[in-house]
Amino acid sequence: MSSVFGECFKVATFGESHCPGVGAVVDGCPPGMELSETDIQAQLDRRRPGRHAISTPRTEQDTVEILSGVENGRTLGTPIGLLVRNRDHRPADYDEMSRIPRPSHADYAYQMKYGIRAASGGGRSSARETIGRVAAGAIAEKFLRVQFGVDIVAWVSSVGVLDAADLTGLPLTREEVDRTDVRCPDDGIADAMREAILEARNAGDSLGGVVTCVCRHVPAGWGEPVFDKAEARLAQAMLSVPATKGFEIGSGFAGSRQRGSAHNDMFVMKEGGIGTATNRSGGIQGGITNGEPIVFRVAFKPPATISLPQKTVDFDGQERELTAKGRHDPCVVNRAVPIVESMAALVLVDFALRQRAREWPAPGSPEASAD
Questions:
Q1: Which domain holds residue 203?
Q2: pTM for the whole thing?
Q3: Would you list the DSSP string of 82-99?
Q4: Are 50 and 58 in contact (CB under 8 A)?
Q5: 231-to-25, 110, 123, 343 alpha-carbon distances in Å
Q6: For 225-272, how does the pLDDT look when each residue is reduced to its tens digit (9 = 90+)?
Q7: The domain that contains 109 carries what CATH number?
Q8: How many domains is the chain partitioned into structurally?
Q9: DSSP secondary-structure letter at 274?
Q10: pLDDT at position 95
């Protein structure tokens, strides 16, 4: 199905960009965890449009409603229904684009697959769909934090040709990341990134960029051999996010230029046990977490919908010139930060629950009590 993610902690998202609402159903969240809308709203606010000059002017409050699965402030173990209502949707902005597929957008591909599509706002391929992911990811993240102390922080590490310094070794917080609207904690380049985005917007154009994410305090042993490797699931999760075009973990493509003697992570004794002196593996070896921070990067293309006139053809094959209307981000990376964090949380919580199911004797079982 196009809407379900996860094996034990399952998430199904629903809704289109300009329908009455979007959201998610989370199935598999363990019972008894304290949960309220406040736990979810913080991440939705970070993803929300209309907050900064460098994002889309579409104004949405993105207020989440918990419809089911929680009673008296605690999860029941039953499916958790989450709804965010669309308030500022304007499908009339897309009248012309309903007849002309936008260059590099999903309009043509969706039409060919289904023979019909939601013509306003990109429908299911719109970034608006990610609201359900972020809401579900906030629940996953709370479980990981409470049960294991896992900390997930992402930030913008490049915009266009502008690269931030390597900050992966620093214990960054989300508060530090959010100090600037571009969400780059490198003060030496953040202002230049912001100016580049504004320049592209004023020119009717767009810019791409890269989001870096670090997941700390992830226990060793999470992930499945062969087909469900931890980095494979992370790659699938990140490349399912709209506008993504690349994923790399640890040393990534740069590691292919090194010799093994330079690239290998040597094992050393650390406080609490065995660790590695370096982390070129990005916290995962053999598809299984090794206890070091998980470090990966996600590349986002320039948003496809721009206001510059573009030569294209309509669905009848007739040459047309398209000047897109509507309200769109000139660069998506700053708003993608909480989406990347949420998808990482969904991957990790699923592995945590799968590992818990494998452990024997299970905590609380008669066999465990006998020991």
A1: 4-370
A2: 0.93
A3: EEEE--S--GGGGTGGGT
A4: yes
A5: 25, 28, 29, 13
A6: 999 999 999 999 999 999 999 999 999 999 999 999 999 999 999 987
A7: 3.60.150.10
A8: 1
A9: E
A10: 66
